[in-house]
Each structure stands twice: as structure tokens, then as C-alpha cells.
Design goal:
single chain; 2 domains; 6-stranded mixed sheet; binds adenosine-5'-triphosphate; ATP hydrolysis activity; P-loop_NTPase; transport; ABC transporter ATP-binding protein
Amino acid sequence: MSVLRLEQTSRWFGNVVAVNGITMSVGPGITGLLGPNGAGKTTLIALMSGFLAPSAGAVTLDGEPVWRNTGAYRTLGLVPEREVSFGYLTGRQFVLANAELHGLRDPGAATRRALEVVDLLEPAGRRIGTYSKGMRQRVKLASALVHDPAVLLLDEPFNGVDPRQRLHLMALLRRMGAEGRTVLFSSHILEEVEQVARQIEVVVSGRHAASGEFGEIRRLMTDRPVQYVIVADDDRGLASRLIAEPSVLAVALRTDGGVDVSVSDFGAFALRLPRVAREHGTRILEVRPTDDSLESVFSYLVGG
Ligand SMILES: Nc1ncnc2c1ncn2[C@@H]1O[C@H](COP(=O)(O)OP(=O)(O)OP(=O)(O)O)[C@@H](O)[C@H]1O
């Protein structure tokens, strides 16, 4: 049972602050690290795996600093986001190379075991260059697992992987978590994280925006105010009726036509809007959410 801990951890590159004073603990089971592109997930994972030194604060594994600590490297496995650049190696050669780097007593047996876990024994004699994207992810996973680490860190493992392979990979991660390993994976897709992770940590612009069980995070995201543009055949009439609705927070006429509507409870609003329109004989021509991007959800979470 291993626990990774970040304490007021920051990392900057010149004047870019990639990770900004993050404090969090990652324990056994599966944790999802959720954040939009550029949020600092890759930098965080590099800090947690001992590939980068923190500029300030500390990263520890079971109380010991991770940076420049060979003991920690034996406990950690990392699946980086970048593609394996050794396409000319076979899957077996690639995993074996890592087993040898770790100085394992029986690298051949460890390689076989790791390839079996990810279900790649059969194609292990083929060159990685001929593998599908999902197979390439799994061979990276086998390489990260070859020394049987208690902690497994994966950077965007589902990116570009087809749906069937994705399910396969998710099942593998669940198994790792159920075995008591500390598994953390990053993603920018909430649905992906929800399907596998028990615990979710949200990062935005290098800051720790939220932390909790996925139900809590989902609630935080869905309870936020939502903005719509609604275009009707009578914008002014519609605006005056909508402002009387309890689910509506604010209404403003747009100069280019349509109404900006800020909604507190979009479930209730979705039920009311067609009724309000029908009762007053108004035709709705368009309903368009204006801030449904993940970025806006995140900026809401960080209070931006
Ligand atoms: N080596 C570096 N030198 C300069 N800036 C960097 C470096 N590494 C990361 N950054 C910057 O730090 C910020 C966080 O980047 P990071 O790659 O950690 O984010 P991310 O959440 O993993 O995003 P993505 O999913 O797009 O990779 C970005 O603004 C990035 O440009």
C-alpha cells in the first residue's frame, strides 16, 4: 500500500507556472487526474514519478522524497503519453529492455509476466511499428509493470484508443486498483474518468480545482449556472416570460438577435422552455449553449 503526497508543490519553466502550489494525496485504488489541455497534468505526473524536480514544495512516496530516490523508482511505474519511439523493436524486446534496466533477477520471466497481464504474449514477437494504437498503449503498460510496481502513473492512456481497446484498458486498470495498487491516470474527459476512477482530482491552470468522489465532482459540474442563447420569433416577449421562471437567473436581449439566458437548474429549464413557448404561441428557432465547454466548467470550479 503506497501513498503519494504532494505538499504545496509548484513547478515552473522560466516564467510559466505549470503547477501552482498543489497539495494532494493519492492512495491505493484508482484516481483520475482530470483537467483541460495545458492544465499541468503531464508536469504533475512527471513530478510524481521523479522525472522532474519540484521548483518548490515536496513530492513524497510513503514519506520519502521521490526526486533522485532510486528506492522510489523501484516502486513507481510510468506510462508516458508520448508514443514509443522504438517501433523497430518487438514488444518483447521493448519490455525486456526495461526489465534489464531495473536489474531484475529474471528479466525474461518478468517480461513474460508483464506481457501476459496486458494480453500481448501472442504478438510479442512482432515489431511495435506494426501494432495498433491500443496495443502500443498496452506495451507501454507492460513495460511500466515489469518490475511489479505498487504505484502506476499513466498520462492520457485512453487518448486515440478505439472503443474496444479502451474497455480492455479500463478493465486492466480496474484490476490493478483492485489488487491494492495506487493507480493514477490523467484525462481531459469527465466521462472517461468516471468510468474507472473512484477518486477524482481536478486541475486547472496548474491549480488544484476540486477533489472528491466522482458523484461530488459531477454534481459540482452540473449544478453550475449554464448560459444559453435562445432565438425566437418574439425575442422580447420570450425574455419577459423567461425572467419569471425560477430556474432562470438572468435574461438579456442580444443586439444581434436572440436572448442570453443564464440558467441555474438546466433540468427544470429544459422542461419549462417548450411549455412557456407553447403557452404564449412563441416559436423557438434556436437554443444554443454558449459555455458548455469543459474549460468553462473548470473555470467555474476554480471560481474564475
Ligand atoms: N518543459 C517545458 N518548458 C516550458 N513550458 C512547459 C514545459 N512543460 C510544460 N510547460 C507548460 O506548462 C503548462 C502545463 O503543461 P502540461 O503539459 O503539464 O499540461 P497538461 O495538462 O498535461 O496538458 P496536455 O494534456 O495538453 O499535455 C503549459 O502551459 C505548458 O506549455
